[in-house]
């Protein structure tokens, strides 16, 4: 602290805003979207219902949900010119980077999204376009990575089914919808839909606070989510489990590495800034992983290894005294793998789920007319000194 400024690295003890969207209780493992417990929404709601709830504040009536779905269905296509944007990317380009650049490019096609004085109808159109097009852009980034032809959206399919078809269908044959896969994906998207002021949501808010348009703000959120300490953890968990397996599966050795301050290795999928007890989403996903793998008849040694790791860690004082429990990313990769979603797309799945939460946070920030985010600092650099000409340096 100096004068009136207190430094709070990582904002661990700083509240950036007041929000009515999501409630977290880290001590008791409670998560509610607009007051509804995550356990009930994950079991009973559809992802689009939850998206509507987060963005507009109430569960939609049947008419509101029908209109919301129709508006989204009518905007799933992206401008044909965007196909050549994809073709500029080499196949090794990570889908998160491709997606972030495609989303910010949407503002090129929809100039009304850049008008700070736009009407509420124009805001809704921008929001519905984004909810409609992100799955299309996500599937296109995957098809581009595997060099397969793009599959167009199909308006007769539901939101999740349409995404699966664009991901896995080929021009020669449609994807055979599997209700187990679709319902598992619906649940996973709901579990990822919002999480108050996490790193990527704070990024969306601060970019939006300069009146940059919604597409630019969401693109910034996608970039923040990409990091392995945030949404990138779900891909890092699977890579960690594969590495441990390839190394002979000696969990004690790797858990010792995770505890060793001189070793940069951390247990990916463990720990959380807010939950210092269990992450309620991890509990739901762990059960869903058992159900989905059984229903699909999939045996995955990574799941058995993950459960063993969880058991050992939760009996280890190092993790217990630091409140390190499995988080939302610990089991989600195992389900995505069972759904045959490739690991480089795991964080894209997180972005698809988190999109309505980012939109809700951005909308609340705009409606509350919050000022541009501009924190101060404590200066620790050189005192005043005079310029030295190049001849004397
Ligand atoms: C998400 O914020 C959100 O809500 C995020 C999210 C969302 O929905 O938006 O929930 C999604 O990002 C989940 C988190 C996914 N990330 C990972 O799984 C990566 C592994 N986890 C860690 O990097 C870490 O736990 C964080 C980043 C999640 C939280 O970091 P913090 O709150 O800054 O905690 P910290 O780094 O200060 O760690 C506290 C202590 C330290 O030890 P000491 O200095 O006290 O001795 O715990 C240790 C850390 O070394 N620690 C770990 C660890 N996580 C923390 N040790 C081993 N393995 C780990 N995973």
UniProtKB/TrEMBL annotation:
Classification via Pfam families: Citrate_synt (PF00285)
PANTHER family: CITRATE SYNTHASE (PTHR42871)
Active site: 272, 329
Gene Ontology MF terms: citrate synthase activity
Domain of life of the source: Bacteria
Protein's UniProt name: Citrate synthase
SUPFAM superfamilies: Citrate synthase
Coiled-coil intervals, chain numbering: none
GO cellular component, one term: cytoplasm
GO terms, biological process: tricarboxylic acid cycle
Catalytic activity: oxaloacetate + acetyl-CoA + H2O = citrate + CoA + H(+)
Pathway(s) per entry: Carbohydrate metabolism; tricarboxylic acid cycle; isocitrate from oxaloacetate: step 1/2
Assigned protein family: Belongs to the citrate synthase family.
Keyword Lyase in annotation: no
Taxonomic lineage of the native organism: Bacteria, Pseudomonadati, Bacteroidota, Flavobacteriia, Flavobacteriales
Keywords on record: Acyltransferase, Transferase, Tricarboxylic acid cycle
């Amino acid at each position: 602290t100096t004068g009136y400024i207190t430094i709070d690295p990582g904002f661990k003890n700083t509240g950036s805003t007041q929000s009515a969207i999501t409630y977290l209780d880290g001590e008791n493992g409670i998560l509610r979207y607009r007051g509804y417990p995550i356990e009930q929404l994950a079991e009973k709601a559809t992802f689009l219902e939850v998206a509507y709830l987060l963005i507009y504040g109430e569960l939609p009536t049947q008419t509101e949900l029908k209109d919301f779905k129709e508006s989204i269905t009518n905007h799933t296509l992206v401008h044909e010119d965007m196909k050549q944007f994809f073709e500029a990317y080499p196949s090794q380009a990570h889908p998160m980077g491709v997606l972030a650049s495609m989303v910010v490019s949407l503002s090129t096609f929809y100039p009304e999204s850049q008008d700070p004085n736009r009407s509420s109808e124009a805001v809704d159109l921008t929001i519905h376009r984004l909810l409609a097009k992100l799955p299309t852009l996500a599937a296109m980034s995957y098809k581009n990575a595997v060099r397969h032809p793009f599959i167009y959206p199909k308006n007769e399919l539901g939101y999740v089914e349409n995404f699966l078809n664009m991901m896995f269908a080929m021009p020669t044959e449609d994807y055979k919808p599997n209700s187990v896969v679709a319902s598992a994906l619906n649940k996973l998207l709901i579990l990822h839909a919002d999480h108050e002021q996490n790193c990527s949501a704070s990024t969306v808010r601060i970019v939006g606070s300069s009146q940059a348009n919604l597409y630019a703000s969401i693109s910034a959120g996608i970039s923040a989510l990409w990091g392995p300490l945030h949404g990138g953890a779900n891909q890092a968990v699977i890579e960690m489990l594969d590495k441990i397996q390839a190394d002979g599966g000696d969990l004690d050795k790797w858990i010792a590495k995770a505890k060793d301050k001189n070793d940069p290795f951390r247990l990916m999928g463990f720990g959380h800034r807010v939950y210092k007890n269990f992450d309620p989403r991890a509990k739901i996903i762990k059960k869903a992983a058992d159900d989905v793998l059984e229903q699909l008849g999939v045996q995955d040694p990574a799941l058995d290894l993950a459960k063993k790791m969880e058991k050992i860690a939760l009996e280890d004082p190092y993790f217990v005294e630091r409140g390190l429990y499995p988080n939302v990313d610990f089991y989600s990769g195992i389900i995505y793998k069972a759904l045959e979603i490739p690991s480089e797309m795991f964080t894209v799945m997180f972005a698809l789920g988190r999109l309505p939460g980012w939109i809700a946070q951005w909308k609340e920030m705009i409606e509350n007319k919050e000022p541009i985010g501009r924190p101060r600092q404590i200066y620790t650099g050189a005192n005043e000194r005079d310029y030295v000409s190049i001849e004397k340096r």
